[in-house]
Predict the 3D structure of the following.
Amino acid sequence: MHLSQLTSVAATQKHITQNNSKIPTTLSNTPTKQTKMKRKKTLSQFSILQININGLCSPPKQKLIDARLKAKKSEIVILVDTRLTPGHNDTFRGNLKGYSLTSATSYTQSRGVSILIKKGFPLQIKRIHKDEVNSNYLMMECKIYNRKINIMGIYGPNTDSPTFYERIFDIILSNDPQHFLIAGDFNIAQNQDIDTKNYVNVNNPRAKEVLLSKMEEMNVRDHWRDTHPA
């Protein structure tokens, strides 16, 4: 599962998105011919691609991702379970074309999150938050068309860790953003009947309880579930 959350400029809607698909994200109404002339001053449409990459150290895997980026042409790409060491991260950055790269890396080649921003996309990074211990999250405080938005990628613990999700929401709200987005692998199934098959036990039940509680408290919507109800 991966989750992303946004507030809409027009209706203060909030969304969570999941699965490895290109997600059209609308932060304002579609520009008319007149507003297109003033695009730099208004939020517009952009797309987000999230992939659980299952390791990104090998050159063949990096070439595969490069081809995927060229095909999808997403403005923001969030990669989780990258397993990049600092050295592998530098190599990937050197070979990457058309995107800037920010990563939470690990010397143990485990977990890891990277966020790629398409060059030319008007996103200004104001501050970066990393999980320096376990490389389970990476967040950017950004401005897009002069709007404050936090973008976070996470790779949730395999253990039942409710405090992790409490911390995630504390961090994402720490600078009072106008919009925020979280995407990644949460290692949680929100709906046991729909999201799992032949599972006997609920995975990470206490963490799941905290996540669902935070979603309800903040009126967060699951965009994937809204568009794929079953």
Summary: The chain has seven helices and eleven strands. The longest strand covers residues 147-155. The radius of gyration is 17 Å.
